[in-house]
Automatic annotation (TrEMBL):
Keywords: DNA-binding. This is LuxR C-terminal-related transcriptional regulator. InterPro entries: Sig_transdc_resp-reg_C-effctor, TPR-like_helical_dom_sf, Tscrpt_reg_LuxR_C, WalR-like, WH-like_DNA-bd_sf. It holds the Pfam family GerE. Residues 478-543 form the HTH luxR-type domain. SUPFAM superfamilies: C-terminal effector domain of the bipartite response regulators, TPR-like. It comes from Streptomyces fuscus. The keyword DNA-binding applies. CDD domains: LuxR_C_like. The keyword DNA-binding applies.
């Protein structure tokens, strides 16, 4: 009995989703006596789910050959499909295509009408979608769904329904698309679909919701994915992407500290999976948070590393250049990026950054063209988030064009939308812009109220660059001579009072750490204090914050 115990334990662990235990016990059993084709498939899936990809591919390959030896062409083709798909996801397109070609040849030779014929159509339909042919992709996924129904294959049905939803969204038929995506998720959440396919569907649906800025669905399905991941021992794929999406949701909700922690955990988790493209997404998310908090050098490091991992550094890097006082660099980068970005979610993100940068450069007409495109996208998807984005951009352009009355109306609409979306930072940015508009129409009291409300949010979030904009608008100019401090030392004192570190101050003022340290030392001496807490108290006592 001793020799079969690992196999029994491995099968039992596999049944309760204990992937690490299943992998180790099945591998132990295989070392004692070679596993049959069914147990090799269990070993392959458990290895895949704990991130042991080489072991997974080795087990699938052995299972493939075992099925061929038994004359089971359909099962052999399915193993070849999973080998090909895994290699494709790892970026090994030549090897992946080879295995998919072998699977096709096996089925043709056997003249089989089986579910595996549908599996081999999945990469073709995905390829059509990636190539910008959503109509062709949709037809392909409908055929996949029909094959799935004929053979009652839940995994294939999930692929077909998911793909139909993605293709409909890509066609601009968002309402129909998300209905199909929700249908795919029902099969996943009720346990009808195998773990690997479930993970693929979870991540694809959340990305689709993210692409059309359907934050409600994105939040709902990310929470479901988080629960799904938590139920499975040592799950490696999917968990990192879940963390990135959780961080993005936390950021929108104004939970920036938690968002930073979650993004850092995502990077740590993904570091164990070399080559995972989600790492670029995680690094970009960290860069965004650092930029918004004024930690510019750390933001730049993240953007550059994200780009090295295959993820675009824009529009974040261009917005960073604008915040650093380098508008020419920002304008050059964002214009080039917009030309190179043809469509989809990425273009929308670039358009938002483009409007902000072009307005800063005084190119109001160019910004208006981008706003017109944003309006069309928002109308097509009917997303509350996109309506808020478009209204803010529209109001900003009206303000820059010299029409503050109309700007106030558009910005008030944007503020209401951001409030409904539960996005405090974005709502506070609108209030900052409304303050500018109210000042131009001579309503200084309302402008002051908007500024104070925005300042409270920015202080809570630690949004140092935005706080600086509030200070400038409030006319709180740097006063030389207070406590014998120079204007630069007063700036440093103000930033210390926000809780900023020397590195953060250096980022914000675009000076070196050493220069900041010298200013801090001189300031402490002049004020007769010996700690940052005492310096902060002095700043509040003398109305410098």
């Amino acid at each position: 009995m001793g020799a079969v115990d690992p196999l029994v334990r491995g099968r039992e662990a596999y049944g309760r989703l204990a992937w690490r235990d299943a992998y180790e016990q099945l591998a132990d059993a295989d070392r004692r006596e070679p596993l049959d084709s069914g147990d090799l498939e269990r070993l392959a899936q458990a290895a895949y789910l704990v991130g042991a990809l080489d072991a997974a591919m080795g087990a699938w390959e052995r299972s493939h050959h075992a099925h061929l030896d038994r004359g089971d062409a359909a099962a052999a083709a399915r193993c070849a499909f999973w080998l090909g798909l895994t290699l494709f996801l790892q970026g090994e397109h030549a090897r992946g295509g080879g295995w998919l070609g072998r699977a096709q040849r096996i089925l043709q030779k056997a003249a089989l009408d089986c579910a595996e014929q549908g599996y081999l159509r999945v990469p073709l339909a995905v390829g059509a979608l990636d190539a910008g042919d959503p109509e062709g992709a949709y037809r392909g996924f409908v055929e996949i769904g029909e094959i799935a129904e004929r053979f009652d294959d839940a995994d294939l049905r999930a692929f077909g329904t998911l793909g139909q939803g993605q293709a409909l969204v890509a066609q601009g038929r968002a309402a129909e698309g998300v209905a199909r995506l929700d249908e795919a998720m029902v099969a996943v959440t009720t346990g009808e679909v195998s773990p690997i396919v479930s993970g693929i569907v979870y991540c694809a649906v959340i990305l689709a919701c993210r692409g059309i800025y359907d934050l409600r669905r994105m939040h709902e399905w990310t929470a479901a994915l988080s629960r799904w991941c938590a139920r499975q021992q040592d799950l490696q794929p999917y968990r990192g992407q879940c963390m990135v999406h959780r961080s993005e949701i936390m950021q929108v909700r104004g939970e920036w500290a938690d968002a930073m922690d979650e993004a850092a955990r995502a990077c740590e988790h993904l570091s164990a999976l070399p080559g995972d493209p989600v790492m670029g997404m995680a690094l970009y998310q960290r860069g965004e948070l650092f930029r918004l908090r004024g930690e510019f050098s750390r933001a730049e490091d993240c953007y550059r590393e994200a780009r090295d991992r295959g993820h675009s550094a824009q529009p974040g890097l261009a917005l960073l250049r604008l915040a650093q006082g380098r508008p020419a660099d920002a304008t050059t980068a964002i214009r080039r990026t917009l030309v190179e970005t043809e469509g989809g979610e990425e273009r929308l993100r670039v358009l938002v950054g483009y409007v902000e940068i072009e307005l800063a450069a005084g190119a109001v007409e160019d910004a208006q063209l981008a706003v017109d495109e944003l309006d069309k996208i928002a109308d097509a998807f009917d997303s509350p988030y996109l309506r808020a984005v478009a209204a803010y951009a529209h109001g900003s352009v009206l303000l820059a064009a010299g029409d503050p009355e109309a700007a106030c109306i558009a910005l008030r609409r944007a503020w209401t939308a951001w409030q409904e979306n539960g996005a405090p930072y974005e709502a506070a940015r609108v209030r900052l812009q409304m303050a500018r508009a109210y000042r131009q129409v001579g309503d200084h009291d309302t402008a002051g109220m908007e500024l104070r409300a925005a300042r409270e949010v920015f202080q809570r979030l630690g949004a140092v660059p935005a706080l600086e904009q509030v200070r400038e608008l409030m006319g709180d100019t740097v006063r030389a001579g207070v406590g014998g401090l120079t204007p630069r030392e007063v700036e440093v004192l103000r930033l210390i009072a926000t809780g900023a570190s020397n590195q953060q101050i250096a980022d914000r003022l675009v000076i070196s750490d050493r220069t900041v340290a010298r200013h801090v030392s001189n300031m402490f001496t002049k004020l007769g204090v010996s700690s940052r807490a005492a310096a902060t108290a002095y700043a509040y006592e003398h109305d410098l914050v």
